[in-house]
Amino acid sequence: MKYTLLISLLATSSALAKEPAQLQNVTAEMATAANTFLASLNEKQKTKATFPFKSEQRENWGYVPRNRKGLPLEELDEKQIALVRDLLKTALSDPGLKKVDTVMALEAFLGEIEKRPDFRNPKAYFTSIFGEPSATGTWSWRFEGHHLSLNYTVVDGKTVTVTPSFFAANPGEIMIDHKLKGTRPFHAEEDLARALALTLKESGKEVVFSEKPPGEILTAEDRRVKQLEPVGILATEMTPAQQQALMELVAEYANRHRKELAESDIEKIEADMENLRFGWAGGLKRGEPYYYRIQGTTFLVEVANVQNNGNHLHAVWRDSANDFGRDLLGDHIGHDH
After folding, report:
1. Domain range annotation of the chain
2. CB under 8 Å to 50, separation ≥6 — which residues?
3. 87: Cβ–Cβ under 8 A, 6 or more apart, which residues?
4. Per-residue DSSP letter, 228
5. How far is the C-alpha of 253 from the C-alpha of 95, rounded, in Å?
6. DSSP 8-state symbol, 257
7. What is the pLDDT of residues 82-118, one digit of tens each?
8. What gap in Å lies between CA 159 and CA 15, rounded to an integer?
9. pTM
10. Cα(195)–Cα(222) distance, integer angstroms
């Protein structure tokens, strides 16, 4: 089956294979930004920020408030914080970076309204670098705090993986009288998914697999994820317009990252369209708690907006084969031996 709709759908997508040089440009920029950041640190800061590549901390990711390893923003000066931002720019698109900023702004908002600024700390976001950043080497880095975990693994300087990738918002929308009233950072991820679920249901397709949504994303903070139960509708059972809507939703997640990385991930998903599924659980009216997932052979997006009466959203992008670059690292080790 040909999915010609995909070619015209995504400004950032391509039907052609990625040129290795384009990804190598990305990994070289990442290495430069990481080394510039490390060069700005004193020894105490550098000790907190750096770990061996094989450290068990590399896969110790999470999105709840907790004690974390790494170097927090609150221990950096303004110039060093700007260098962390430069590192984030090597991976994220402008919309992706704006989402990061908004997640952190919501943490400050919670600290203000809960009167717990020590617990809801917008500077308790940590940078960790694993291995030695190199334009031709294998290393990784993470930026993480409450409701945010961005994990990048570079292999041989030739490619980079972006999962696990977790974003969340509490509240999903600020409704009280406040200067940030109306802030709703994941409106597209919610509205596109609900519209797709509604059109599928209206066309007689059983996209809703449960009237009651699970209380959380099912893969939680698992270091390794397995295939979840197939639910919902296969892309091959959708009309061309519905397929286009599904890929527009997928693109909303992929395009959090810069063009080269988004294109690479979209191409993998396009190649697996015959196995791609979309399923919904919970209410279909805005304000009702819900859960949905998009799942392919290894690709998975899970979204749960259940807590706080459906106004506290968790969303994760996983790759059961290649989280933390596992698949690529297996090839890398095999070639070395």
Report:
1. 5-332
2. 38, 128, 129, 130
3. 30, 33, 34, 37, 127, 141, 143
4. P
5. 10
6. B
7. 999 999 999 999 999 999 999 999 999 999 999 888 8
8. 19
9. 0.92
10. 30
